[in-house]
Automatic annotation (TrEMBL):
This is Uncharacterized protein. It comes from the Bacteria. It comes from Mucilaginibacter oryzae.
Length: 317
């Protein structure tokens, strides 16, 4: 793995005020998912990562989810059961499994680690080789099934998807392309839309299209200040070339064509090449719109070289 996935603080889309959920879930709600799993998760789990050292209690599980609370959480808060089951179920439907375990381990803290969270993929020894989400908020906030309680977890899951799809073990885009993380914006939008939170997705879309609310200049790992990844790159591709599945196909293109032992990030031309393969269309003109002055003669040369280096990526050019 190129780097450890570290704790992320709320930025940009995660700070948006949001509405109550609505819309029909695209996947099965928790009460229709089998709740008696074949292998029960451990009842107690002692944290041993970063500064975390709580003794956690498993409060719910099914075949998709193992939900753990610290001792400050109110066990009468039950909405995370259905919410995170639907979210993880959709992600597996669209992107495939991550490792040999279908179960997602969600850890919720109250009145500590507030407004922050971190993921861990299945190959990370620090979290006992489990796909893990660890998030903290104030106890009062956990009573509300909205806003950051949905968006922050989905943001963190996006790191697992970007780093671990199809057997990969590092993110090839976070240092040189989208930082932390412009991919999360479209990922959050799509997951909300497909897990029963249309009004939340609409709020994300509105924020991304409001320059006064979205920081495209100062976010962790920024490489292309001012580029609106959501409006000018991801969303046009998302709408025109298949929505969630086109995002999944991008990671499949990476897995099928880039050596698994590669650790250096994609350059901009390679990035456009692989997304073109996912779309089945040459996205060079969209790249010129999205990346503006950053799309240079060097970028053109990178794209041409990528077309030579990765000829298994098919689209007209």
């Amino acid at each position: 793995m190129k780097k450890t996935i570290t704790i992320c603080i709320l930025f940009s889309v995660l700070l948006t005020a949001a509405c109550k959920k609505d819309g029909k879930p695209a996947v099965k709600p928790a009460d229709t998912v089998k709740t008696i799993a074949v292998n029960a998760p451990q009842k107690k789990w002692l944290e041993h990562w970063y500064e975390h050292d709580d003794l956690l209690t498993n409060v719910y599980y099914n075949d998709d989810l193992a939900l753990y609370y610290d001792n400050e959480m109110d066990t009468t808060i039950t909405w995370p059961r259905g919410a995170y089951t639907r979210i993880w179920h959709y992600i597996k439907q669209n992107y495939g499994n991550f490792g040999d375990s279908s179960r997602f381990y969600v850890v919720l803290h109250a009145n500590k680690h507030e407004g922050s969270g971190h993921p861990a993929p299945y190959y990370d020894v620090s979290h006992d080789y489990r796909n893990v989400l660890d998030v903290g908020e104030s106890l009062s906030d956990w009573y509300k099934e909205e806003g950051d309680k949905l968006r922050l977890p989905i943001h963190e899951i996006g790191h697992i998807v970007a780093s671990s799809s199809h057997g990969r073990t590092h993110d090839l885009q976070d240092d040189n392309i989208w930082g932390d993380s412009k991919f999360a914006e479209i990922f959050i939008y799509d997951v909300l839309l497909n897990s029963g939170y249309k009004s939340e997705a609409d709020a994300v879309y509105a924020q991304m299209n409001d320059p006064s609310q979205t920081d495209n200049y100062n976010y962790p790992g920024v490489r292309y200040p001012g580029v609106n990844f959501f409006v000018d790159w991801f969303y046009p591709i998302y709408i025109k070339y298949g929505k969630g599945p086109v995002l999944a196909r991008y990671f499949k293109q990476i897995a099928d064509n880039v050596p698994m032992d590669r650790t250096d990030d994609l350059n901009l031309g390679e990035f456009v090449h692989f997304f073109s393969g996912a779309a089945g269309a040459n996205l060079r003109e969209q790249a010129k719109i999205a990346f503006k002055e950053y799309w240079t003669s060097d970028s053109e040369a990178q794209l041409k070289q990528a077309q030579l280096d990765f000829q298994g990526v098919k689209y007209p050019y």
